[in-house]
# Entry
Amino acid sequence: MPEEQAKDFLEARPWLSGICDTQSTEELKNKYDGWAKTYDRDVRKDWSFMPGNIARTLSQLLPQKESVILDAGAGTGLVGEALAQKEYSNITAVDLSEKMLAIAKEREVYKALHQSNLEDSQMFSNSVTFDAIIAAGVFAYAHAGVKVLNNLFCFLKEEGIFLLTIREDYRPQMQTALEGLPWTLVSEEHFPIYI
# Structure
């Protein structure tokens, strides 16, 4: 993206540069807590298609509506809401931000909500596993990386579905870890966002 175009792009989305230049987990949590009330409105233009695409993809891969699903990095619950519209009802949300989770709770689509760092291997007991794990908007600069990917994978049932999004510019940092996990890539789609 040419320099002038990049400048215009970030000026139209001040929330993006503020989130992606975070230096610590605590700072990221505080920024999301502060952003919670306007998050849905701020991301609508660029990201509104994604929750529906995720729910549609999961319903093709995992048609059993009683499946146990983890919405990792659930934020305000946009993905959970899209899953509920596809009649999934056994969804657990986990997010770093308490204020984002408070909004997600208002959607009344989650069986359980947990405030936790996705790097925390103790966020669930060792016996908790999921038929599907969704991590949308999680793998990006100053957010989650390889440690989170490996940690979440431990909570996935054998033959489970791991549906995730990764910003294209961040993928090279994740590629080795993606290739190292014992899974099979079922499908991959590219969505141009933030243009």
Remarks:
- The chain has one domain: 3-180.
